[in-house]
């Protein structure tokens, strides 16, 4: 079972990514390129967050040291996956808006802060 707080943060990440995509569609010179870049940036934050939830959520109760080890493994996997996703996006998508990519990533990552402020 996924922690309800983790679900809430991922939903906020998705909403912020979609909001940033809309801003990219409205404000950019090449709106489709910017929106796709923002989406890819958001996915570079959302997919590793889901992997973290999957790995760290396997141990809900038990030995505190084992729980910490699972969180360390989850954080390492999240970091490595984030690097691989950014590398893959930068390697395979040549016509990319780099500010849009990082804007989408920052928008999705800011969901952790909004998750502390917003209680649904």
TrEMBL record:
Domain of life, per UniProt, equals Bacteria
Indicate whether Membrane appears among the record's keywords: yes
Q: Which UniProt keywords apply?
A: Cell membrane, Membrane, Transmembrane, Transmembrane helix
Q: Where in the cell is it found?
A: Cell membrane
Q: Which residues cross the membrane?
A: 12-28, 34-53, 74-93, 99-118
Q: What topology does it adopt in the membrane?
A: Multi-pass membrane protein
- Name where it mostly resides: membrane
Name by which UniProt lists this protein: ATP synthase protein I
